[in-house]
Request: fold
Amino acid sequence: MTQKQLATAQRLLPGSGLFIAFEGGDGAGKSTQAKLLAEVLQRSGHEVVLTREPGGTPVGEQLRELVLSHGQGEIDARTEALIFAAARAAHVAQLIQPALSRGAMVISDRYIDSSAAYQGAGRGLGSTEIEQLNTWATQKLRPTLTVLLDVNPEQARARRAGQVPDRMEAEPESFHSQIRSAFLALAEQRPAEYLVLDALRPAAELHAEILQHPVLQRALDGVPSGAADRGKTP
Ligand code: TYD
Reply:
């Protein structure tokens, strides 16, 4: 365990929950890993809230449908960024923050970094501006740990073969390459808060490595709950 990882683990305080986000390109296998982690935490006696973005609340699910389905006509980039941020604001206010206050473990399939990568880099709106918008929308709530499942877009597309692509998945390979680079850059900026893994490794192996992270070791070692990193955005 590095000093920085130790510091991250030590931020866990009894009485408030732990917030883990899974990030990565389309087809990286985030949902599978989020679910596997949720099962382990549940079995160890924690209250677990497994959720996703966009979504997680009635308003968020409606916004998801609006922004991902085809047939809404054109959605310009700023509108798209605001829809994702609006869904996230509802998610934090109505689901994530109340769960953390109860001491639950919240696992979210995607969070702010998806907006920084897809809207900031992919749509060219600028990662800094998108982060500022989302810092406001989330009242500065950041995950304690983000697991980034890094995947080459070409291989991810092959994994999804046969599925009908949503609005984002239908974007060209260059868009998805920009997104991959943006995720990796975000992880490099705050290495202590990220676990970056090669998404093409076998799911069981990835799951085992995620469980080894100090933040999760501490949660599984009988510490009833942890502290999400509230208000730590510089
Ligand atoms: P998701 O259902 O997680 O897609 P997948 O299961 O294919 O990974 O996310 C839906 C899509 O929405 C995905 O293409 C990424 C995109 N997205 C954004 O562009 N910005 C965001 O802020 C979020 C949360 C998702």
In short: The CA atoms of residues 18 and 148 lie 17 Å apart. Residues 9-15, 224-234 have pLDDT under 50 and may be disordered.
